[in-house]
Amino acid sequence: NGKFEEMEGDFNKLQERKKHLIDVAERLEEQRKVRLIAVLEKVNENFKKVYKSLSNGGRGELYLENKEEPFKGGLELWAQPKGKSSNVTRHQLSGGEQQRVAIARSLINSPDIIFADEPTGNLDEKNSKKFIKLIQILNKKYNQTFIIVTHNKEFQKISNNSFELKNGKLN
Asked: N or C: which end of the chain has fewer CB within 10 A?
């Protein structure tokens, strides 16, 4: 009889510990959710600014597919170039508009190094120059490094180093 009471007491203690651990896990999950949303809001503000600048006044936004359960969904991107309907989907954007969205997305976290393959390939001359100017500003003001693979000779004029790949040889 004493053994049973001792086991029952141990069982009750374990149940209390289990309840406590579940409470702690739920609070941690809620804090994790709050932090993720706070970080996303900062990243979204950066994306909005960069996209607006790159698209001459367009609007863009990042949002969670499932805000109630942010870890059970993805991150969506919405972009509306200046003068276009807000009903235009990302897939209906022109090549240059998609390029500007991709550039803005790559810059939102202020990375130290940005790798770009033909970043101005789908941009017109005006937007190419604007992007090149942005790279200069980011490099000088924020010490960001850009490694760019391109046929656009304008990048050579602003680069600290440039290499040419010709006939399979790096010069």
From this structure: N
Other Cβ atoms less than 10 A from the Cβ of 21: the count is 10
pTM: 0.60
Of 70, 17, 11, 69, the residue nearest 43 (C-alpha): 70
Q: What is the CA radius of gyration of the chain?
A: 25
Identity (one letter) of the amino acid at 45?
A: E
- Give the chain's length: 171
Q: 151 forms bridges with which residues in the sheet?
A: none
Rounded Cα–Cα distance for residues 38 and 156 (Å): 39
2-54 and 125-142 helices, crossing angle to 10°: 120
Question: What are 118's two structure tokens?
Answer: 């033909």
Model pLDDT for residues 84-107, shown as the tens digit of each residue = 887 777 778 888 888 888 888 888
